Amino acid sequence: MMNIFGFRLSASSAIDMDKVDRTLFDKLCAEEPDARRCMSCGSCSATCPAGEFTGMSVRKVLHNLQRGKEREALKMVSSCMLCGKCNMVCPRGINTRHLILSVCRIYKTEESR
Amino acid sequence: MRDLYPSGFDSFILPFMIGMTFVLCWCGIGAVRVIAELDREDRKKFFLSFLNPKILGKNIRDWFCDCLFHVKLWKRNKLLGYMHSSIAFGWFMIIVIGHIEVFIYTPERIHRMWYPIFFRYFVAVTESTMKGSFFFFLMDFFLLMILSGIILAMVKRVRSRLFGMRRTTRASLTDLIGLYALWSIFPLRLLAEGFTADISGGSFLTKSLNMVLHSFMSDSMNALPVWWAYSIALGVFMCILPFSRYMHIPAEILLIPLRNAGIKLKHEDKGVARAELYSCPSCGVCIDTCPLSAVPANSRDATVYLNRQLKRHNEKRIDQISEKCMLCGKCSVVCPVGVEGDKIRIAHRSRKKYSIAHDYSLIDEGKFIGNMTEKRRVLYFMGCMTALTPAIRKAVTAIMDKAGEDYTIMDGDGGICCGRPMLVAGRKDAAMEMIEKNTKIIKSSGASVLLVNCPICYKIFKENYSLEGIEILHHTEFIDRLVSEGRIAIDRSETKYVYHDPCELGRGCGIYDQPRNVVAAAGTLVEADVNGKESICCGGSIGSLSLGFDKRKALTENALKHLTCGSPDAIVTACPLCKTTFNRYSDRPVADIAEVTAERLI
C-alpha cells in the first residue's frame, strides 16, 4: 500500500540517547581509554581490507557502540582480520587492534547472551 | 686403604640423604608428569627418539655441551661461560670421581648413596701410591675449579657488567637461599676434607689447608661439626632446589631430549612448556637482549619474569607480559637453555576467551579467483602492509618487468589478510579460515611461484599453509636469484647502506645472506653493531597487542641508534612494516630492498 507511489516512509532512525544502555561502552572506555580519542577521520575505514566486503570500519564500530547500535557494530567487528592497517594509519595513534579485541571480549552477541 | 668406620655410617649424612631423596622423588614425579602431559603421538615420538642413534648422539652431545660446558654462554661471554661451566663440570667430575673411588676401593659399599660424597670421611686411601695420589690430585683440582667459579659468581653479584650483562635478574627469596647454600657447599667441603688430609691423605689444596690451619685442624673434635655443616649445606640446597632457579639443573636434562625429538610447544604450561619453564635458570640474558628493555621499566616484562609469574600462577601479570611482547623471538635465540618465550606467550594468548567470534562469511574469495583468468608463472602477494607502502609494490613490479617475468598480482586492489596477525594474537580458528581462503585463491591461480614481500606473510605461508608444488619466495630471495641468474643487473654506487634484518625474516625464517648479497650489489654494505640473529626489532611489530603508538617511539629510536652506528647513508630493510616504522623517526632515508634495486637497475 505504501509503495504505490514509488517511495515509502521509513521509520525514524533517530536515537534517543537517554534510552541507550551505556554500561558496556563505559566499561570498554575504562579498559581502552583510546576509544574516546577517536576523531572519526575515517582513515581506518579507508584502509580496512574487510571493509570492502562487510563495511567494517573502526570509526563506525565506535559510533555504533556509543549510540547503542550494538548489533551492527558487533557484526562489523566479527569480520576484522586484525591485520593492523588501521593501527598504522590512525593519526591519533589509537591501538585499534587491542580495542577490537577488547570489544570482542566485553560485548556479547544477542544469541550468546 | 682402610675403613675408618666399619659401620660405614655416621648420623651427619642425614641432611644430605633427606635432601637427595626429596629432590630425586620430586624430579622423578615431575618428569613423569611432563611426559604424561604430552599428546599420545608426541609421547610415542619422544620414546622412539631414544632408539634413533642420530638423535641419541645429539642428546648426549647436548647434555655435555649445554648442561656441563655451557657452550652458548662461552660464546656470549668468556667469563660468564667459565663461571657456569667450572661449577657445573667441576661438580659433575667430583661426583663421577667419587663414584670411581668407591668402586675401586670399597666396591661392596657402592649402593650407599652417601659414600661417593663423603668418601674421605669414611675411607682412608694412601696417597703414597701413584693411583692414590692421582685421585687426590683430581679431586683437589676440580674442587679448585669450582671454587674459582664460586668466586666469580660472587663478583658477578656486585659487578655484572664484567660478565657482559648490564642487567641481571632480581633474585627471589628461594633463589637467594639456594644461592647461599650453593656458595657454602664447596668451601665447606674443602674445610671438611682438610681435616682428614693428615689421616686419609690429600693433595695440594686439602693438604696445604691442613698445614696452614694446623692448630685448628689437628683437633679432631672440630672435624665432625664441619662435616655436619657440609652435609647440611647440601641438604638445604637440594630441598630448596625445586622451588628455586636451580631447578634448571635437572629440568634441562629432560628438555634436551624433548627438543631433539622435535616435540613442539602446544600448551602454555603443560608438557614441553613446563619443561621449559623449569629449565629457565633465571640467568637474565633475555633482559638485556629484549628490545622492550630500551625503556627500563619494561625490563620486568622479559621472558625470565614471565617464567617466574607462570610458576606463581599470577594470571594478571602473565596476561600483561604476554600481551605486551612484540614476539621478535630474540629471547628464544639467545636463551642458553632454549626457552621459547615467544611461543609460550602465543600459547597463553590463545587461552583467552572472546565472546564475539569471527565471521568471514562475507569475505568472498571468489572475487579474487574471478580476477585471475590467465595462468601466470609468478603470483605476487603484496600483503596488507604493502598496500600502505605503494612504493614497494611499484619497485617489485618494476624489477619483474625488467626481468621479463610473467606475473600477476593477487591482492592489487585489496585482499585477504595472510592470517599471521590473528595467529599471533592467539585466535587460531580465525587465522585458519583466512589461510583456507587464501589457499583456494593461490591454488586456483595455477602459478608455480608465490612471491611475497612482507616477512610476516612469508613466515605464515612457509609454516602454516600447505601449498604443495608452489615455491614460496620472499622478494629478497627472488631478487638475489634474478641477479645471480643475470636476468637483471644492478648499477653499483658508492652509497653506504646498512641492512636491518626484519625479525620474521631473519630469526623467523633464517634468511640472512640473500638480502645482504643484493645490498652489496647496489652499494657498500655496512653492518649494524647487533645484526643477524640478534637484530633489534624496529618497534612496529604486530606481535604486540597492548603496546600503544606512543610507547613504541623509544624502542624504534633505540633500534635506529644501533643500526646507524656505522654511519651509513641509508637504511635498507626488507619489510614494509619496518620501513614505515623507521621512517617516522629516522634521520636518514629508509628504503625497502626492492626500491634500492629498482632505482639502480641497468
Report the CATH topology name of chain A: Fumarate Reductase Iron-sulfur Protein, Chain B, domain 2
How much helix is in the residues of chain A? 40-55%
- Low-pLDDT residue spans of chain A: none
Radius of gyration of chain A: 16 Å
Strand composition percent of chain B: 5-15%
Descriptive notes:
The complex is a heterodimer of chains A (113) and B (602). With 113 residues, chain A is mainly alpha-helical. Chain A has a single domain (21-106), classed as Alpha-helical ferredoxin (Fumarate Reductase Iron-sulfur Protein, Chain B, domain 2). In chain A, 45% of the residues lie in helices and 0% in strands. Chain A is built from 7 helices and no strands. In chain A, α1 packs antiparallel against α7 and α4 (58-66) packs antiparallel against α5. The longest helix of chain A is centred in the last third of the chain and has 11 residues, at 96-106. The radius of gyration of chain A is 16 Å and the shape is globular. The mean pLDDT of chain A is 88. By secondary structure, chain B is mainly alpha-helical. Chain B folds into 4 domains: 27-50 and 248-279, no CATH class; 69-243, no CATH class; 287-353, no CATH class; 360-602, no CATH class. Chain B is built from 30 helices and 10 strands. Chain B has helices spanning 14-37, 40-49, 53-68, 71-76, 78-105, 119-122, 130-158, 173-196, 204-212, 214-217, 223-240, 248-260, 272-279, 285-289, 303-312, 315-324, 330-334, 341-349, 366-371, 384-387, 390-403, 420-424, 428-445, 455-463, 475-484, 506-509, 513-522, 553-563, 576-585, 593-599, and strands spanning 2-3, 123-124, 378-381, 407-409, 449-452, 471-474, 496-499, 524-526, 570-573, 590-592. Chain B has a 4-stranded parallel beta sheet. In chain B, strands 8-7-9-10 form a 4-stranded parallel beta sheet, with helices on both faces. In chain B, α5 (78-105) packs antiparallel against α7 (130-158). The longest helix of chain B is centred in the first third of the chain and has 29 residues, at 130-158. Chain B is elongated, with a radius of gyration of 30 Å. At the A-B interface, α3, α5, α6 and α7 of A face α20 of B.
